[in-house]
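RETRY 2/3 - previous attempt timed out on the joint model. Re-submitting the same 665-residue input unchanged.
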Amino acid sequence: MKEKHMNKTIKGIAAPLSLANIDTDVIMPKRFLITITREGLADGTFADLRFDSTGEKRPEFILNKAPWAQATILVVGDNFGCGSSREHAVWGMRQLGINACIGTSFAGIFYDNARKNGLALPIVSHEIRDTLLQFARNASSAEISIELDSQTITAGEISASFKMDDATRTSLIEGRDDTLDTLKYAGAIYDFETRLGNKMRISVIK
Amino acid sequence: MTKTLYDKLVDAHKVCDLPDGDMLIYVDFHIMNEYTSPQAFSGMESKGLKVWRPEAHLSVVDHVNATRSVEAPDAQSKLLIDNLEKNCITHEIAFYGLGDLRQGIEHVIVPEQGLVVPGMLIACGDSHTTTYGAFGALGFGIGTSEVEHVLATQTLRYKRMKTMRVTIEGETTLGVTAKDIIMKVVQVVGAGGANGFAVEFAGSAIRALGMAGRMTVCNMAVELGARAALIAADEITEAALKDHPHSGQFVFKGESWASDPESVFDEEFTISGTNIEPLITWGTSPDQSISITANVPSALDYVSPKAKMALERSLQYMGLTEGQSAQSIKIDTAFIGSCTNSRIEDLREAAKILEGRQVAKGVEAIVVPGSAMTRMKAEAEGLRGIFEAAGFEWRPEAGCSMCLAMNDDIAMDGERVASSTNRNFEGRQGRGARTHLMSPAMVAAAAVTGHLVDVRNFR
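RETRY 2/3 succeeded.
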């Protein structure tokens, strides 16, 4: 059996994005959703925050400023990723080079979408988040490091633990394909179906 | 031991525990649309996998299609629609496409077709799948990777959530609708206040609602972060299961689909139904709402600098001033539609306001019935005539339309919309568009006066 790499660390410049309730419409506006592939979504990510209506970069937006244009980590406001289920939001963030968002709470569907695409979402207290926001705001700050195995965030002198459920953590560390992994349990699924009565098996009229 | 309705539903669908702490749950029924499914089909195919149980899925076109005619609004949208049809043919999945009399917004047509009954588990690549909780079924939104997972395995990896009960006790007053109830809940619990929770709605104000109202409540529960919303099945639910194409074909027996008395919830909220007034949103998050008789908040109403900053940003985007009265807000557009409020009951409520009245000069008013069947029913009842006589544009084709403006029904920069939809996010109805959420009757009243107004003055 292939040995699993069990010590994944995410390291990089962190950008502060403190606004609460950043929804997936803001992360990936609808005009980028008319597509049948996962690719080509980097430009659409935070498009209305990054660009004005003529397509010019908004100089005041954090991800358009040095050094945060190189950010691979975001420190975000409460309830990040709320709203629509569109996984395009996560695909776009990954394509933009974002590997993790540190926040206090994430919307459920966004959280699950993130796990499927290798985007880590460490959950910390409001106090730690605000400290990290402060750290990230300082352009001369060092990189932030997120160690999934020990569930620790290190930022300069700051060291804090974060919450992440075991299944998500394992999935992120292993880079697992959940669909293929689940098919190992095909027998259990067949058994479950056998136990269902006829009237508990939906058959949609074509 | 007592069990909540949520725990009963999870237990009934648990296939097995997984070593990493997740469980596998069985998905009885899965719905797909044209924009969150393409990459799921291609993902499955690239792994050489097949659909586990094709007859357990339904595909429907609703997000990108035009509402003026059955033609797709542009070539790219047509590609999405054709791609879904092709995938359904390849994998032998039921497809209700444009021009099909069963077509419509997914969460409107599923109950019309009798495809939801108490005790089921339903997944769909759309966050408003919480709607099915109205039937005592567990419905929740999933992402595209999970759509692939359901297609290939008929299951999902799942983690049991915490439970919350929101009790709305005391009957609502005249002019207050299910939309106002759920908007009040979102205001009290907060956007994100129910992240990680399955929320059950209870109390006399909920029991008094018909199925359409219960669907509106469960639909918008996702705006407080709830991954699942539930209302116990009762005689009103039972009555609503009859006379649909799939009626009688599925029965999920074994337990009562209600929480046991004395069930313990992780969190509880109680709200007085009697005190709820018609609400409108003033900001860019669904919890930024006020009574129609109140004023837009001012910085004085907030203590924390963060809240003051959020207020400032919202007001700037919305083009409003602190302390401005709700009823002084003039509108450009009135929109009635969406999976929240486009059912026949919603159209009837709006028509009551519009009968014998005219849309104000300068206001563009649009109504998009939630499904082809809803449209035909409304036309048979004479509602179309009422809407059109008042000056509303009656759209013949059903879809999500201006709720998220993925088709050509897009609000312009700065355009102010009184909307019966579910999200007032920045840019949701169009770049720079300003959305005020409210009940369909309130939208109709605003259309008539040209500004936000108390619908109770119209009765």
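Residues 102 and 122 of chain A are 5 Å apart (CA to CA). Closing ticket.
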